[in-house]
Write a structure and sequence with these properties.
Helices cover 41% and strands 16% of the residues. The chain contains 11 helices and 16 strands. Strand 12 and strand 13 form a beta hairpin. It is globular.
Length: 355
């Protein structure tokens, strides 16, 4: 399958010569390093340690991980082959429990494998089908983001200053981006815009990744500490907000990087439109808010920066990776099928009816 050309020259994850190649995002912005994996366990570790992150990107990475697992399998029959895939699926799924795209990507591969296995295909044929499907998931991600960008760009005007939190750009997807894809599409339509990016503690995806890729693509960006969101809004330095999402419920509850809820609350206080950009694969139409597991990460992310300690060793740490933004704080949810507006339960349902 031929790769789709992208606006950004950054391509986060790709399949090449039966290997998974991805940007090591832990090295950014100091180095642009590509790593290559031949074992699905390595892909699982890459997801777990944030070598690759961002809901769409880890969904694609999960699919590629299963493609590697299909090549690694030593099974002599289809039943054993499917069992090997299921083992790999469980290991990959357990790496990040909150982002729904990972489950979506894994389920898409497993559903294909189980369906085709009943059609008397050989293991070799099934391996080829799985690899082709994983590559299609990756290319579809780019097409989806471009469509999302086109819909979202209509919400932004010339001379807007747009705040974004965390990284929902090319580095959170295969390429182009969700929230930053909207920003890229807005700029591509000739609108003169500026971006304000939060640093996004504790792992600093905003300062390390969002600022890196916006500067890489020549987009005007300023960086602020997370604690300056209120100041920036109160002083009218920003007039719109767009963020990505790791999971969106049918009710319009949005789960995204920790701190998103605070940004949305501040935006509501100051009358600033707050938009979310995410593909339909990020929507969880079954779960309720009480069902969603918020990933808790290790305390050392908070007690130090790199090798430098910034807090005592014995301090208790609460380090949630995500928070929930309620629908009443959200102006619109931008998808590849259009923009959902309040009341979200109705508008989101319509998006899926038209899908």
């Amino acid at each position: 399958m031929e790769e789709i050309k992208t606006h950004s020259s950054l391509r986060t994850v790709k399949w090449k010569d039966n290997k998974v190649v991805m940007i090591d995002q832990t090295k950014l912005p100091n180095e642009l390093v590509y790593v290559t994996y031949t074992d699905y366990n390595e892909v699982a570790q890459a997801i777990r340690t944030l070598v690759v992150r961002g809901a769409p990107a880890i969904g694609v990475s999960g699919a590629f991980g299963l493609a590697l697992a299909s090549l690694q399998s030593k099974a002599a029959d289809i039943k054993s082959f499917l069992a090997d895939l299921e083992t790999a699926r469980k290991i990959l799924f357990e790496t990040r429990p909150t982002a729904i795209n990972l489950k979506w990507g894994l389920d898409r591969i497993m559903n294909l494998a189980n369906k085709k296995a009943s059609e008397n295909v050989t293991i070799e044929q099934l391996q080829t089908l799985i690899i082709d499907e994983s590559k299609k998931i990756a290319e579809d991600d780019i097409t989806t983001n471009r469509s999302m960008g086109n819909f979202g760009s209509e919400l932004f005007s010339d001379k807007d200053t747009i705040m974004t939190h965390c990284n929902a750009g090319a580095l959170a997807t295969v390429a182009y981006g969700t929230a930053l894809g909207v920003i890229r599409a807005t700029k591509d339509k000739g609108k003169n815009i500026k971006v304000i990016a939060t640093e996004t503690r504790p792992v600093q995806q905003g300062s390390r990744l969002t600022v890196f890729e916006l500067k890489h693509d020549g987009i005007d960006v300023s960086l602020i500490p997370d604690t300056a969101v209120g100041y920036t809004m109160a002083n009218k330095l920003v007039n719109k907000v767009v963020v990505g999402a790791d999971r969106i419920l049918r009710t319009g509850h949005v789960y995204n990087k920790i701190g998103t809820y605070q940004v949305a609350t501040m935006a509501k206080q100051h009358g600033i439109p707050f938009y979310v950009a995410a593909p339909l694969s990020t929507f969880d139409m079954q779960s309720n808010p009480e069902d969603v597991v918020i990933e808790m990460r290790k305390g050392t992310e908070v007690t130090g920066i790199g090798d430098k300690k910034t807090a005592p060793d014995d301090v208790n740490v609460i380090n949630p990776a995500f928070d929930m933004t309620p629908p009443e704080l959200i102006s619109g949810i931008i998808t590849e099928k259009g923009v959902a507006k309040p009341p979200f339960e109705e508008s989101i349902k319509k998006l899926f009816e038209n899908n």
